[in-house]
Amino acid sequence: YLLFVGRDEPRKNLSFAVRVLERVNSRFADVWLVVAGKIRRKLGGGKVVAIEMDDDQLAYAYKRSVALIYP
């Protein structure tokens, strides 16, 4: 999975992360986007998962992700 840390607010540019996911999915269909934070809408055709994480969970997510999306 790709990891995005932040909430769904304009300054965080979550829509950029979704566009990245779409481009990656054109070659690798099994990649998901994990959002460490809250989102208020459905994104990414069902391939976006939002999870509120504590510090330990976030550290684990960083270690296990394929890439961090930091727009």
- Secondary-structure element order, as H and E? EHEEHE
Shape: globular
Helix fraction by DSSP (H/I, runs of at least 4): 25-40%
Low-confidence segments, given as residue ranges, are none
Share in β-strands: 15-25%
Mean pLDDT across the residues is 92
Q: Let me know the number of strands.
A: 4
So how many helices? 2
Adjacency order of strands in the biggest sheet:
3-2-1-4
Distance between the termini: 16 Å
* Rg, nearest Å: 11 Å
The secondary structure category is: alpha/beta
Compact summary:
The protein has 71 residues and is an alpha/beta fold.
Q: What report would you give on this structure?
A:
This protein has 71 residues and is of the alpha/beta class. It is 31% helix and 20% strand. It contains two helices and four strands. A four-stranded parallel β-sheet has the order 3-2-1-4, sandwiched between helices. β1 (2-5), α1 (14-25) and β2 (33-36) form a beta-alpha-beta unit. The longest helix has 12 residues, at 14-25. The model has no long low-confidence stretch (mean pLDDT 92).
